Hints:
Blueprint: E1 5-10, E2 14-18, E3 24-27, H1 42-64, E4 69-80, E5 89-100, H2 104-118, H3 120-127, E6 131-139
Amino acid sequence: MQTITLKLAQKDYGFEATDEAGTIIKLDNSPDHGGNNFGARPMQMLLMALGGCSGIDVVSILKKQKVELRHYEMIIKGEREQGKEPALWKNIDVTFIIDAEITQEKAERAVQLSIDKYCSVAETLRLAGATITYQTIVKA
Length: 140
């Protein structure tokens, strides 16, 4: 079982979450709800987690194919449900930008394997009702 420790680190809603390795992530509420921009919002962290999970998958797949990345980037946009509490992620769109000597088809296959098969965060979000769309841009 993994353990995360969360401590109030700054006035009002500024928290620090620490994992077993000592990695610290800062979280906060939005300023319009009393936060102080101390850290990311918890719901933003879900989108960041999707990026990290899928990013690790895609880079791993490309490494196995001996693809040398010059640049890798993801742009993740999300839309939450309106007028509901809790307001879950409804639509998430991910753009993968890969700069490497790779065909469009191979890059798209790596992305598809990640989002549709390997990424646990993507599956968790889908099971919560989110629709995840994605596209791949190759810059060679």
